[in-house]
Amino acid sequence: MPPLPSDVSDASSYMATTQVKRRWPRRGRHHTTPNLTRFQARRRLERERERSMASEEVRIGWYQVAVDSPLDFRVYPERDTAPGQKPWIERLQEATAAREPFTISFEGRSFTWHPGSDDFLPVVTVPINDWDNYDEERFAVERFLSALSFEFGFGVAVYSAIASGFNGELDPPLLQQARIKPTIYPAPNTVEVAETSEELSLCLALVREALSSASRVLAYLSYWKAVEVAVGDPDHRSWIGPAAVALWPEDGRTAESWYERLKETRIAAAHAIPRLAPQYHPDDPTLTSRLMEDVDRMHRLALKAIRERWQRPVRIPTRP
Question: 178 and 60: one domain?
């Protein structure tokens, strides 16, 4: 066993770190062994101590989200090539295939990014300190993803989320969200619509826009517009409440109460600073949860409105 550096006190931790293989040597050095140098082991210990000292609160678990996005990350190797080392492009291919997790600092927190694969979505984790209330961490994750989306120019949607017990920062996440595969149906010979009117065409287009959108705000507004077109304006104002009572009688709301709630959500979705409704912030998980519920309700209301006006708006004859 080599002698410990003077500033390394934990022998077991030091020996563990010296067994980690070095994948990409630094410029101008040819390493004949895979072990880390003493300097690297010392720096790793220092970084671990800094991370533990930076957080005075006890971490009890992790908030984990699976993100659906064209965006993903890998830790790129250094471009310089030492003697006996593989070309950079080969090392880059290895790093891409390895899918090793890494941490990103944002607003004083450490977020761990677990890269995705052909079968699973990427997962982002952040430590939580209170099982009963981790809204602050949920909000922080949303702000983190919004910053990435703005900087790189890709949509980033939270597909699913869980809270789990504590494990290592770079350990595999408990959340494993499979990528959505196509839903396969028998191929139709013909697709028919009830009529070739502009109104039915617009209703079908608005529903498709809502179903295809990654934005719940856009989806909600598109479903609302579909109801307006199918029922008519201003008749939709007196139709929405009773229709909601018929669909969800177990909620115990009156028709007027249903209309006021759904109208509030529409105003919040349409205006950044609404005067008569709660302000919707896309990164606020509490309001996002309400919007998710109301999007599903408006979807069903839109289908109900369209099918009441056109009994079978779209028909696919049975194949012979």
Answer: yes
Give the predicted TM-score (pTM) of the model. 0.59
| One-letter amino acid of 186 | P
The per-residue pLDDT for 69 is 85
Number of domains in the chain: 3
Residues 6+ positions from 177 with CB-CB distance below 8 Å? 66, 120, 121, 123, 159, 160
**3-state SS of 83-141?**
CCCCCHHHHHHHHHHHCCCEEEEECCEEEEEECCCCCECCEEEEEECCCCCCHHHHHHH
Query: Within a 13 Å sphere around the CA of 97, how many CA atoms are in the beta-carbon half?
Result: 6
Tell whether 109 is covered by a domain. Answer: yes
Convert the pLDDT of each residue in 265-285 to its tens digit.
898 888 878 776 677 777 877
| pLDDT above 80: residue 110 | yes
The residue written with tokens 């409440």 in the block is 241
More confident residue, 23 or 148: 148
pLDDT at 9 over 50: no
Same domain membership, residue 144 and residue 202: no
Residue 246: alpha-carbon gap to chain centroid: 34
How do residues 85-99 score in pLDDT, each as one tens digit?
Answer: 888 888 888 877 877
Could you give the angle at the alpha carbon of 147 between the alpha carbons of 142 and 152, nearest 5°? 125
Query: H helices within the chain, ranges in order?
Result: 11-17, 38-54, 88-98, 135-152, 198-212, 216-231, 235-247, 255-270, 285-309
What the block records as the tokens of 268 is 């919040």
Q: How large is the angle between the packed helices 135-152 and 285-309, nearest 10 degrees? A: 70
